[in-house]
Amino acid sequence: MIDLEKIRAIDIHTHAEEPCGCHADDGYDDLQATMAKYFRAPWSHPPTIQETAAHYREQNIAAVIFPVDAERETGYRRYKNEEVAQIAAENADVLIPFASIDPWKGKMGVREARRMMREFGIKGFKFHPTMQGFYPNDRMAYALYEAIEAEGGIALFHTGQTGVGSGMPGGNGMRLKYSNPMYIDDVAVDFPDLKIIMAHPSFPWQEEALAVAQHKPNCYIDLSGWSPKYFPEILVKYCNSILKKKVLFGSDWPMITPERWLSDFEKIAIKDELRPDIIKGNAARLLGMA
Prior knowledge:
By secondary structure, this protein is of the alpha/beta class. It is built from 12 helices and 8 strands. Helix 8 links the parallel strand 5 (154-158) and strand 6 (195-199). Helix 5 packs parallel to helix 7. The longest helix has 15 residues, at 106-120.
């Protein structure tokens, strides 16, 4: 189990990747290679979960890790939630598994969500509206949210535009409109007991994300996918004040390493007394670890 006193941070946003060559024909490797160039990541194929665990153990950082199920929209084969959970369990001193279920899977997805929470101890689920091709407030996803809420789980939504598909023809078919954080406002209203994380500085909708997080008690923001040196001024202002208990360290590993993110975070104008909560305390409380 994770020793909260010993670790120096909790990374709320990391990606689970399979060994190289598992599905050479579906285009996923091309997407990853393009993203690696965009983020200047130092690898040719993303690190596996075991390699991720080793890296985080060396850095003395715990990490929430998840796959992304976007099979219907992208054709990329998903990394099975059960496998991710099992490997994370082997590395329970540093890894906290989330799952991912495409909401288009309907009742089948709802059954899987309940099973993952009850049998595997999954604490949350990653949604990627841009890759999964849905608006977060689409009623077809509501049965899935209801199941997650009923089990006390967390829903983590990709928001804004990061490097996914950037520069590829047609943006690799990914439509940015789905990831406007304002759609999550409806979810927060309709599921007031569902813990919601809006992932990433939400370019070009940063102020919408800040408004939702400020207005809805169940909404948080993770700071992944961007080096802190690029954070907009208004985001830093809110981190230092009204949202100081609702912003969470996230790297977006393996595109950004946690040590790079933390190093850049030290250089921006965050009040010293708030730094421990942003990099660890807020996440620990949200995850029920503190």
